[in-house]
Amino acid sequence: MKRTTRFVTPFLIASFGMGSMPAMATPTAVVDGLVTTEQAMKAGQASADRERIAELLNRDDVRDQLITQGVDPAEVEQRVAALSDEEVRQMNERLDSLPAGSNAVVGALFAVFVILLVTDLLGLTDVYPFTR
Amino acid sequence: MRDRSIGSARWPGALLLLAAVFLLGGCATMPPLSEATRASVPQSVALDDVPFRGQRQYQCGPATLAMMLDHAGRRVAVDELIPQVFLPGREGSVQPEMLAAVRRHGLIPFVIPGSMDALLQETAAGHPVAVLQNLSLPWWPAWHYAVVVGYDLEREALVLHSGETPFREVEPGRFDATWARSDRWAFVALPPGELPASSVGRPEVQTVAAFEEVQGGKAALPAWRALAGRRPDLAMAQFGLGNALAGEGDRHGAAVAFRRAADAQPSLAAAWLNLGLVLRSLGETAEAAEAFERAAGIPGPLRDRAQSLLEAGLSPAAPVGGNGNRGRSP
Lengths: 132, 330
Hints:
- The complex is a heterodimer.
- By secondary structure, chain A is mostly helical.
- Helix content of chain A is about 55%, strand content about 0%.
- In chain A, helix 3 packs across helix 5 (about 85-95).
């Protein structure tokens, strides 16, 4: 009996351990409990769990923001999943001020047009291709 | 041609010239290029194999991505990329999502150092470079993504797939002025296993780790191998390789990598801890205990865990047996 217990217990423990592993952990990990590369990159490993929760909340916020910005809700999930934690933070902190590359045609006042024309000719900007 | 247009615009321009020069003086000069770069890169490079994808209005982000992906063998239509990066509310695409989209398609987006040197080095290495420019002035921005596909040092020209124009030639000074407004943001998109031509370090470790989070350890393994091969002295590169190998079931390889990580940076408790765990799973209890002991000796958040692992290993009821000589890792 004792022998059996000794034999079975490690497996039992392992199976419980696997069941309680966070959803984000790699399911294929052969060696249990390894410190992940992402965790090791972060300074405060003690608060890893707290950080994890904060990240998940951050991701929720970004999800909401993207929907507010008009992104198709069907696409949002995958877009958020592809962001790194750092990028999620950037999106959360300053999505409104992040430059959005669009090459929008500069529809502008005449004064702005003249100034940009001059800076184009000076080689400082690249707004009007006809200046060259 | 440029000289003639400057001539015809002399009078309206002259009024603002002094003010503009005063405000932005020096921006348009030829950006400095280090002697080392000049000596190491060819006089001219043309990446003719980068396919051009035209953009419709606002879609320079998806178009840029399509060109970068296509060059690396991932043919994705611009229309397919629009819902993946375009932000209707901002009428454009933001940097984090550009990188994320690259990741989604199985390539690794390495942000390169913001310098003309790095830009030319990448181009010379055959990597098209996606750049973010502000074509206008800071107070009236026109943000724009384009792909650098070549340069000619003698003729002083950069070649870009930009907007609706393939192989557009731009003077380096003008380009740098517009590029500087995004803090010279640029990235290359490479298949796992290829690295940027510029030097790699901790930021690239982070880049590969982020890729691994999205695409998994198996996809990231070649990247870890490349990184650890290029920088054997970089502990986190070895550490990442160790985790990827362990994830793939190569515990002996993982043990070697974790040991290299610990040797490269003996204060990295996580490396000792993981080394111990892998060795213990291989049945090398004595060596595992040694590693746990090292981890337990480093002040920090992992100390307690290492201590309890050490105690568990010393007690007779240790779950995994072994005499320490069996299955010795190479």
